[in-house]
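User: quick one, sequence for these tokens?
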């Protein structure tokens, strides 16, 4: 486990009916670290991110975020106030495979809405921050456009700007390039690489082995609901010790 972690997950179990998706998963990530999670579909990767953001509630386990402990059994039994859960979610940004932008709002309004309605920011301040973030993601000229006028890569960059508008301590990325046409993947990965260079703490579920190798500090391989291997990205991806990791990488790299 990471020393003095920003986020620590301990002994998390999550089932949907009789299907146990996460089997006693423990994981930690340090401040400013980029940790990639790889593995086959159905191995529990996305479910873990949804548990961290409390979109799903595990049956057991707990997490420690910036020194604050959240017991998942307490959450499921309503022993943790909703205000605390909402505050936690504001500090953990999440970007999904689908963009989930509001179609009836402009690009700028999409980015500015949450700071106004969740954080209580004045509209002018939120709009100014949205302008800055749209510049950061290379879309300042699209501020007044509807999301439908943008390419998939541009919409995903707006979704990242929207998450950043909440000024989170950590960003969760759930296969954010999977729905994009191949020629659009690079622009999103370039933005994520920029965030990593700026010191953003990031937990990234990805099929992009190049990103995992060259941007992530560590990579974890999920297999059938547990972490089969974790370590420095170059070690895991170049010389994996676990046979399931080797088999997965052989399939993925040969397919590419």
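Assistant:
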């Amino acid at each position: 486990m990471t020393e003095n972690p920003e986020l620590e997950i301990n002994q998390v179990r999550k089932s949907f009916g009789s299907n146990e998706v996460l089997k006693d998963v423990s994981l930690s990530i340090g401040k400013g670290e980029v940790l990639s999670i790889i593995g086959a579909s159905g191995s529990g990767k996305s479910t873990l991110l949804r548990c961290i953001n409390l979109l799903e509630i595990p049956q057991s386990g707990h997490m420690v975020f910036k020194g604050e402990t959240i017991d998942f059994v307490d959450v499921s039994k309503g022993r943790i106030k909703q205000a605390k859960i909402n505050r936690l979610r504001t500090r953990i940004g999440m970007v999904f495979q689908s963009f989930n932008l509001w179609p009836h709002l402009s690009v700028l309004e999409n980015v500015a809405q949450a700071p106004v309605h969740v954080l209580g920011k004045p509209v002018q301040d939120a709009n100014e921050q949205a302008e800055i973030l749209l510049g950061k993601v290379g879309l300042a000229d699209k501020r007044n456009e509807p999301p439908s006028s943008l390419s998939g890569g541009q919409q995903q960059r707006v979704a990242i700007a929207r998450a950043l508008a909440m000024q989170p301590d950590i960003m969760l990325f759930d296969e954010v390039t999977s729905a994009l046409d191949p020629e659009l993947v690079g622009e999103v990965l370039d933005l994520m690489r920029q965030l990593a260079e700026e010191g953003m703490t990031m937990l990234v579920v990805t099929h992009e082995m190049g990103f995992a190798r060259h941007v992530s500090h560590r990579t974890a391989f999920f297999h059938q609901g547990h972490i089969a291997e974790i370590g420095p990205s170059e070690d895991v991806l170049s010389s994996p010790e676990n046979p399931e990791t080797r088999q997965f990488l052989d399939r993925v790299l040969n397919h590419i």
